[in-house]
Amino acid sequence: MGAKRKIKAKARPRRKPANHKAAARRGHHRPANSNEPHLTSRPMWQGQLRLSLVSCPVALYSATSANGTVSFHLLNPETNNRIRMIPTDPDTGPVERKDLVKGYEISKNHYVVLSNDELDAVKLETTRTIEIERFVDAGEIDRLYWNAPYYLVPGGKEGGEAYTVIRAALAETGRIALGRVVMHSRERLVALEPRGKGIIVYTLRMGDEVVPPGDAFAEIPAGHPDKEMIQIARKIIEQKEGDFEPDTFEDRYENALRDLIRRKEKGEKLVTAEPVEEDNVIDLMAALKKSLKSGGGRRKAR
Description:
Layout: H1 21-25, E1 45-51, E2 54-62, E3 88-89, E4 93-94, E5 102-107, E6 110-114, H2 116-120, E7 129-136, E8 146-154, H3 160-173, E9 176-183, E10 186-195, E11 198-204, H4 213-217, H5 227-239, H6 252-265, H7 284-293
Parallel strand pairs: 1-7
Antiparallel strand pairs: 1-2, 2-8, 3-4, 5-6, 7-9, 8-11, 9-10, 10-11
């Protein structure tokens, strides 16, 4: 009888530790407790700021930072390797990303294909210039149209004087300048506001981007609330009045995620908290009076 043939078991892929030192050395990840906003090292846009025949080089930096936001990568649970998103044609299989082209869908599975050269040919003057077109009072711009803030700074020493002249003129007139600029492959309406020694630029939404409030509120019944209830609600509002202090508000969900990451990194046993039961308001008047008696509830949301 022949000797039994040994069957070598297929080795399972080796599981890597969850924290990759190489990624940390390259600076791809910040510690879980790092959430301080900071100005980026490179501007997101560079060009000219122009008022009639006066122009100067400028650079645009985002005034907000998402560095403190907790983000996750998708991993293979067997190896802890980060997965790769590979462009795939359903008929022919994987495709090189560099070979892809852009297409605009005009009907189901029918596209107008555009090459990079054709897209590059669609150049506007606002691609490299913020042309100031109009001046308005800040109160004329509905808050629905305000979007993201940016810092506009001089792009070089040679344009510093023209920059300060435009900023000073805006400050003295108390007006907001309106212009256009191409950002992220789109021409955007922008508002320029003087702030300290510099200028803040806000992107504004176009008219066709804002849904009229009436469309959203059309189904709300036009009732007449009880006057006593309104008076109690007004007193609660007065109790909770205060200054706007953004540093006193924190993203509690973000903090809870960071705490979860720290505890799991330390190997602590995680305990699931019991869900908070929501109170169903049955007697609105009783609820208002109870809120007023308790001082309007919690004053600060931290």
